[in-house]
Structure to design on (252 residues):
């Protein structure tokens, strides 16, 4: 906008024409272009919108895979895999504002994670097996309970509840695994032996090609499935996660 002033030698008074007041539209100001977008420009502003939750990795097309853990209804998850993946899920759940309570017989495995996450406030608590107290979940304070209690975990004192999801970590299948899978809302499976893959395939109604893949999955890849749907997800750690947890691995 040009703000320079041109000098004049004389000034002739000019009476401005009367203007009708425009009630409700405010003061008259400079004319500017309207803030409008064409249809093509508007669609370019679109953002991907999915379920709220924890981004656990990306699917085979590279699309973020989101695990909705903060739910107004009980949600039960079983993961047959490594503690590394469960720890990444726990860290990312804290990042969404959830509290994480870990019931574990391997306290030393979770201590560094808890200390890192609790730098500002107590977001992660560790409890011995069978000593998990009520967590008091609510809409404003959802909870993720991680049960790292071995391949045959005892019955938990703190189960799924509204705004409280439970992730049961099984390092490998056992005779109790089919029952736990049948009760779960979602099952994650990482690399297992061929005979274990066949057992899981029967329980989860997996097609033969997926059963064959389960014994060859790379570290960091999980098949998340129900009896009617399946998705392979690759979990890639961020730089801070790598510094704290190390690289992706199936076995501790």
């Amino acid at each position: 906008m040009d703000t320079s002033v041109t000098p004049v030698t004389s000034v002739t008074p000019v009476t401005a024409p009367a203007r009708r007041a425009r009630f409700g539209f405010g003061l008259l100001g400079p004319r500017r272009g309207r803030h409008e977008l064409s249809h093509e420009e508007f669609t370019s502003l679109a953002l991907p919108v999915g379920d709220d939750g924890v981004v656990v990795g990306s699917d085979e097309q590279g699309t973020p895979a989101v695990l909705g853990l903060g739910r107004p209804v009980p949600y039960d998850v079983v993961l047959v895999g490594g503690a590394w993946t469960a720890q990444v899920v726990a860290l990312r759940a804290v990042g969404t504002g959830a509290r994480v309570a870990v019931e574990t017989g391997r306290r030393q495995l979770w201590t560094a994670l808890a200390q890192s996450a609790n730098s500002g406030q107590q977001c992660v608590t560790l409890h011995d097996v069978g000593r998990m107290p009520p967590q008091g979940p609510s809409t404003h304070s959802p909870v993720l309970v991680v049960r790292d209690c071995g391949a045959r975990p005892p019955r938990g004192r703190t189960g799924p509840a509204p705004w409280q999801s439970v992730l049961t970590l099984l390092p490998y299948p056992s005779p109790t695994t089919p029952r736990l899978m049948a009760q779960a809302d979602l099952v994650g499976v990482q690399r297992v032996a061929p005979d274990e893959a066949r057992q899981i395939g029967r329980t989860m109604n997996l097609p033969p090609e997926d059963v064959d893949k389960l014994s060859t999955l790379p570290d960091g890849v999980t098949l998340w499935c129900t009896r009617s749907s399946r998705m392979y997800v690759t979990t890639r750690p961020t730089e801070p996660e790598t510094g704290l947890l190390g690289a992706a691995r199936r076995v501790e």
In short: The radius of gyration is 28 Å. The beta strands are 54-58, 64-67, 75-80, 99-104, 124-127, 143-148, 164-170, 186-189, 221-225, 230-234.
